[in-house]
C-alpha cells in the first residue's frame, strides 16, 4: 500500500516528499544506534522455532520445548545478536529487519483473520497450522523469493513494448520477493487449519472423542493451550 500510494502521488504531484513520512512510516524511525543483526536474531529464532515445531507436528509428535531447549534458544539468540557485526551483511540494516518484523506480523495477523472468517476458531489450532506451514515453506523460501523476483523482473521489462519506463515499477520486484514466501505460508496455514481435528470435533461423536483425547495429552508444549 505504501509503494502504490507513493507511485500515485509521484504522478499526481510534483513533490511527493511531503506525504512520504505518512506512506513510509519506517523511514521516520531512528534506528541508527541499533544494528540489523540485533533485530534479525530474534526474528530468525522465531521462524526457526516455528518451523521446528511444524516438523515435530508433521511427525505426529508434540513440539515440546522444556527448560533446557528454552535456555539454549535464548543463549543462541544472544550469541547470534552479539556477533552480528561479524556476519551481518551491509544490506541487513535495522530498517530492513524492522520491515521484516512488520511484514511478518501483518501476514500472520491477516492469515488469522482469514482462518477465522472461514468458520470456527481455535488459537491452538491456528498456531499449529502456522508452524506446519512454516516447516513446509521455510526450506524453499530463498528459491521462492528468487523465482518471484525473476518473474516480476521479466514482467516489468515487457512494459517497454508499450513505451512505459520499467524502472518505475522495479519496486514490484522487491515487493514480490519479500511477500511471496509469506503468501505460500498463508495458503498452507489456511489449508491446514481447515483440516484441523479440533475444528472437526462437532461433526460427529468419533471426532469429538478424538479431539477430547488430543487436548488432554499432558506434555510440555511449545504452543499455548
Can you lay out the helices and strands and say which pair or pack?
Blueprint: H1 2-12, H2 17-23, H3 36-58, H4 66-82, H5 84-87, H6 94-117, H7 123-137, H8 141-157, H9 171-194, H10 205-215
Helix pairs in contact: 3-4, 3-6, 3-7, 6-9, 7-9, 8-9
Can you offer a commentary on this structure?
This protein has helices at residues 2-12, 17-23, 36-58, 66-82, 84-87, 94-117, 123-137, 141-157, 171-194, 205-215. The protein is mainly alpha-helical. The protein folds into 2 domains: 1-26, no CATH class; 31-215, no CATH class. The radius of gyration is 21 Å and the shape is globular. It starts with a helix and ends in a 10-residue tail after the last helix. The model is unreliable at 201-225 (pLDDT under 50).
Alpha carbon gyration radius: 21 Å
Number of domains: 2
Helix content: 55-70%
Q: Uncertain spans, ≥5 residues at pLDDT below 50?
A: 201-225
Shape: globular
Strand percentage lies at under 5%
Overall mean pLDDT stands at 76
Count the E strands: 0
In N-to-C order, the SSE pattern is HHHHHHHHHH
Amino acid at each position: 500500500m505504501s509503494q502504490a500510494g507513493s507511485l500515485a502521488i509521484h504522478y499526481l504531484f510534483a513533490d511527493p516528499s511531503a506525504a512520504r513520512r505518512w506512506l513510509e512510516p519506517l523511514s521516520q524511525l531512528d534506528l541508527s544506534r541499533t544494528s540489523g543483526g540485533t533485530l534479525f536474531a530474534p526474528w530468525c529464532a522465531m521462524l526457526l522455532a516455528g518451523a521446528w515445531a511444524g516438523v515435530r507436528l508433521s511427525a505426529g509428535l508434540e513440539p515440546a520445548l522444556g527448560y533446557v531447549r528454552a535456555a539454549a534458544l535464548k543463549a543462541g539468540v544472544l550469541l547470534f545478536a552479539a556477533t552480528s557485526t561479524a556476519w551481518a551483511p551491509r544490506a541487513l540494516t535495522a530498517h530492513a529487519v524492522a520491515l521484516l518484523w512488520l511484514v511478518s506480523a501483518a501476514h500472520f495477523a491477516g492469515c488469522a483473520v482469514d482462518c477465522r472468517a472461514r468458520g470456527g476458531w481455535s488459537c491452538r489450532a491456528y498456531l499449529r497450522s502456522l508452524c506446519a506451514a512454516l516447516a513446509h515453506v521455510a526450506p524453499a523460501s530463498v528459491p521462492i523469493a528468487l523465482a518471484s523476483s525473476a518473474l516480476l523482473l521479466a514482467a516489468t521489462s515487457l512494459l517497454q513494448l508499450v513505451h512505459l519506463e520499467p524502472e518505475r515499477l522495479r519496486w514490484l520486484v522487491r515487493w514480490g520477493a519479500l511477500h511471496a514466501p509469506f503468501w505460500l505460508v498463508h495458503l498452507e496455514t489456511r489449508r491446514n487449519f481447515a483440516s484441523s481435528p479440533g475444528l472437526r470435533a462437532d461433526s460427529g461423536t468419533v471426532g469429538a472423542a478424538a479431539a477430547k483425547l488430543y487436548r488432554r495429552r499432558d506434555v510440555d508444549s511449545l504452543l499455548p493451550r
